[in-house]
Amino acid sequence: MFDVVGIGLNAIDYLCCVPRYPAPGEKLRMTGFSRQGGGQVATALVALSRWGLRAMYVGNVGDDEHGRLSLFLLREEGIDLSRARTVPGAVSQFAVILVQGDSGERTILWERDARVRIRPEDIPREEIRRSRAVLIDGHDVPASLESARAARGAGVPVVLDAEKVQEGTEELLGLCDHIVAASSFLAHLLPGMDPASGVREIYRSFSPRTATVTLGADGAAGFDGREFVHARGIRVEAADTTGAGDVFHAGFLFALLAGKPFPEILSFSNAAAGLSCRKPGGRAGIPSLDEIHRTFLR
């Protein structure tokens, strides 16, 4: 039995720290460089594993250096990879990330081979039914729908990391218990709607248990059918915002499985995400539970 089964993206990130965003045609010396594991679901599972939960990753990589490294890094974190698939001849997902030194904001350039898409037949239905929660990112919609249906049929809560609106996304929203969306997702799904109205509209239209939108430094806003909650972000000296949303989703799942009330779930998630920005990369800055609790309880 797993606490969380995660189905979605996994990548290798090349993090290039620069003093400012370069002008076209300019040569600019980097102030720092590192290569790390990344990807929305994979990074969230790393955080959950470090915090003591049992996690399974479901996704595909190519049989290249990036694929071998990405699986090695997850295995080293204690994540179960028995349902991860290696696709012969495919190129694994990777990204080049420009991190601006003055603000920690990042620009992501990415590549993903269509052959590593997750298919409905890749979904481990039995493991999902015996888990405590499922995390999906909705990028590969048919596989995400299959995962959500398997979980829903067994009464297992589904948390959606909503980032991309595409064909089938609205059907997927109707199968998720907790929708945690990026502000860009809200802007595409409900153009012109502010966060407070947006989460209420998502709740009304798709009937999840909770609807949340992350707001970067401004924290997060959510609605659970009873009250609107705005959890303010925490102040940190940000080195890099890469992966903050992924750690937010990990915090959401951890607090949800701990039985926290909705306002505390958002505050805990904000603390985890904000603290993760202190170091470059999505995983290097994942805070410990002690650090989160000290910040969360202030």
Could you tell me the mean pLDDT? 94
Strand content: 15-25%
Derived structural class: alpha/beta
Could you give the count of β-strands? 14
Order of helices and strands: EEEHEEHEEEHEHEHEHHEEEHHH
* N-end to C-end Cα span: 34 Å
Could you describe the 3D structure shown?
With 298 residues, the chain is an alpha/beta fold. The protein has ten helices and 14 strands. α4 links the parallel β9 (133-136) and β10 (158-162). The protein starts with a strand and ends with a helix.
Key features of this structure:
alpha/beta, 4-stranded mixed β-sheet, 8-stranded mixed β-sheet, 298 residues, 10 helices, 34% helix
Blueprint (SSEs and pairs):
Blueprint: E1 4-7, E2 11-18, E3 32-38, H1 40-50, E4 55-58, E5 60-62, H2 65-76, E6 85-87, E7 94-100, E8 106-111, H3 125-129, E9 133-136, H4 141-153, E10 158-162, H5 169-173, E11 178-182, H6 183-189, H7 195-206, E12 210-214, E13 220-223, E14 228-231, H8 244-257, H9 262-276, H10 289-296
Parallel strand pairs: 1-4, 1-9, 2-7, 5-6, 9-10, 10-11, 11-12
Antiparallel strand pairs: 2-3, 7-8, 12-13, 13-14
Helix pairs in contact: 1-8, 8-9, 9-10
Write a concise synopsis of the structure shown.
This protein is α/β, with parallel strands linked by helices. It is built from 10 helices and 14 strands.
